[in-house]
What does this fold into?
Amino acid sequence: MQSYKKLLEGNKEWSAAKTSADPDYFKRLSAQQAPESLWIGCSDSRVPADMITGTDPGEIFVHRNISNLVVNADINLLSVLQFAVEVLQVKNVIVCGHYGCGGIKAAMTNEYYGIINHWLKNIKEIYAENKTEISALKTEKEQADRLTELNVIAQVSNLSKTSIIQRAWQNNNRPNLFGWVYGLDNGLIKPVCEMKAGTEIDPIFKYNNL
Ligand code: CO
It folds into this structure.
């Protein structure tokens, strides 16, 4: 069977199974969505937000891009963030990276892959800032794993520097921000950082008139 047909067949089977287990499942889901979490994850096909967290449709609002970056000129990310924080009023924003991330590995090389390198430059900056710590690790895998963690920490920090998060912290004392890394080899998520709503940030990035 062609791979796209497999997707449509799989969809029919999934829909039938859900309906037979719970006849009102889709009626209830289509009425509204009230997710409590926004997930900013990697586009990697092996890291599906709802499956690895054991959640159902409707529970997580999702944005994914290569290597789960929060770039403050990314109108796509900012639109998702604003909608999630201000309209859906999520309580948690999670940046979830994953070990074995191709984007992280590529950013550690000098290969040029085209337009993607403009995106990966964001990771190269984090690599450069933490070169001493990363280089002290023995294997390439350990180095890439650490950069994966440092990347997630940097992206959570980037979130806290947005006007969207600062306004929500000031007015609503939410959302809390979390940085996690998922292990492809064991299916487990490792929390690496957390910024509770209202955490003091570097005054340079603070807005007073939101
Ligand atoms: Co990845």
Remarks:
- The mean pLDDT is 97.
- The chain has one domain: 37-47+60-199.
